[in-house]
Amino acid sequence: MKSIRILVALAMLLGTAVSFADNHAAAGSDIPHIDASTAAAMLADDTQTLLIDARPRAAYYYLGHPKNAFSIPARFWLGRLNADGTNYAFSGNRKFAEDVGTVVKQKDRHLIIVASNTAAGIKAAQRLTSAGFTNVHNLKGGFPAWVEAGQPVIRKANPVRIFFRADTTD
Predict the structure, then answer these.
(1) Is this prediction's pTM over 0.90?
(2) CATH code given to domain 2-168
């Protein structure tokens, strides 16, 4: 139980640390940003709107994910850490737009990108617009903002147990 509290506290600190970068990133992007309430309203009003969770699959399963979100990672967690537990290693998914295209056949369909933070969401959304998707929105604040707004989250696993299992499969 103590390990879960530590994991949650670290996730909250990370969310706070990126808020400055999120505000900076949102100001310099041509990608439309929406808050969690607006995203939820779009999903409720329009059955053609899709929620794409672009976080690494580890985050999707370990931390939970928005209800009805498709997990299509824009980057992958490699599971490598320094000896002191810092510097997670990630690798970009070069086929992200192609992977989205396997789920989304109409490039004018409304897509809402959920990432770890605003900056990561902008990068993922820009990759989709570069590939010809025309109605891409970024969830401002990413998954932490979705949770903070009280939107539905699906949690399937014990984060601590699976985190350690994933950490050892390098």
Answers:
(1) no
(2) 3.40.250.10
